[in-house]
Amino acid sequence: ETGVTQTPRHLVMGMTNKKSLKCEQHLGHNAMYWYKQSAKKPLELMFVYNFKEQTENNSVPSRFSPECPNSSHLFLHLHTLQPEDSALYLCASSQEGSYEQYFGPGTRLTVT
Amino acid sequence: AQSVTQLDSQVPVFEEAPVELRCNYSSSVSVYLFWYVQYPNQGLQLLLKYLSGSTLVKGINGFEAEFNKSQTSFHLRKPSVHISDTAEYFCPPFPGFQKLVFGTGTRLLVSP
User: Fold this and answer.
1) How far is Cα B8 from Cα B1, in angstroms, rounded to an integer?
2) Which of A31, A41, A99 sits opposite B32 (nearest CB)?
3) Taking chain B (112 residues) in consecutive chunks of 10 residues, what is each chunk's mean pLDDT?
4) Å from A106 to nearest chain B CA?
5) Which of residues 39-98 of A touch B (CB under 8 A)?
6) Higher pLDDT, residue A67 or B29
7) A106 contacts in B (CB within 8 Å)?
8) In whole angstroms, what is the distance from residue A92 CA to residue B35 CA?
């Protein structure tokens, strides 16, 4: 595997389910990000992790719970989501101090 | 602080025609400018960047952009587009490391 990978690529879940999105970067970076991309809305930065420590949380509802066990892996735990949470969730990584972020292909989430 | 404006939400163009996607910026500090591209069903990737030096920046897939300080612009150009260039293009401002704000982008639609 190279670059940034995300699994699953597609996920359909009910509002009472609990699921997790996984992101893995194979680039040796030390910063990782979660973004939300909804139709016709700007890309929203959700969380930032540096060296496994969360450094940014942009007022994201508590039904989204991130976890970064090491610099290569990032999870987004989901529970009791709402239909408006349906979106493409993108993971990215970068080297600290770098201007460039590398993105995964995203997980297309549908909440029914 | 730095802000950018992408002037067009959608740009339709015929294959092999030239294209220009417009981005204007305002900044009271040093200027760092980027173009990212998102192909259908993929994450974003860096197309090109201007940090300093030559004002004409060449990126991947035949794209280039010119930093114009007097017009505060950083427009993206390609002399002849292909169907495969159909994508969403983002010119995010740079408020600081790890704080890229991607906005809604410009959708380039290339038709035969």
Assistant:
1) 23
2) A99
3) 81 97 79 88 90 90 92 93 96 68 87 96
4) 6
5) 40-43, 45, 48, 50, 55-56, 90-92, 94, 96-98
6) A67
7) 41-43
8) 16
